[in-house]
Amino acid sequence: MLLRVWRSFTAWRRGRPFWAGLFVAVGALIILFPPYANLKFGDMIISIQTLGGVSALLIGVLLALCAVALWVAPKFRLASGIVTVLLSLVALVVTNLGGFLFGTLFSLLGGALAVAWTNEPKKPKKTENGPETTQRVQPT
User: How many CB atoms lie within 10 A of CB 126?
Assistant: First the structure.
């Protein structure tokens, strides 16, 4: 039962840019987290509540939507990848250094993987002389 579920997940994953969507989703969560986290140190509470919080919410949600689009509709991977790269670069400037650089780096990596992904099989390389012929050597 578990093996069948794993095989079906693997077949689903191979037909779409799974790793690109995963990196973009992780980047979106990292960008969303700092403005809304309240850190407690004893009696002191540290929170970041600035305009960066509103932009982090908007950019984080849009990045999460791009991640879901990469998994659900892989034919739009080029558009999602380009939007992801642009949003992650904007997040670097607008939202607490883009999740303290980690959110931007994960999103940029995911966007680059999405743009580069294809599901077409690799074609074999052709040589100038046509197909390669191998000669069999008889052992002596």
Answer: 9
Which pair of structure tokens corresponds to residue 33?
A: 């987290």
Q: Are 110 and 22 in contact (CB under 8 A)?
A: yes
Reading the block at residue 25, the tokens are 């989703």
The structure's pTM equals 0.78
Q: What is the DSSP string of 35-68?
A: HH-EEEETTEEEE--SHHHHHHHHHHHHHHHHHH
Rounded distance, CA 30 to CA 23, Å?
Answer: 11
Cβ–Cβ under 8 Å, residues 95 and 115: no
Using left for φ > 0, alpha for ψ between -120 and 50, and beta otherwise, residue 131 falls in: beta
Per-residue tokens: 138: 């008889």
Pairwise CA distance, residues 37 & 54, whole Å:
14
Distance from C-alpha of 117 to C-alpha of 79, rounded to nearest angstrom: 12
The pair phi, psi for residue 137, each rounded to 5°, is -105, 125
pLDDT digit string, tens, across residues 97-110: 777 899 999 999 99
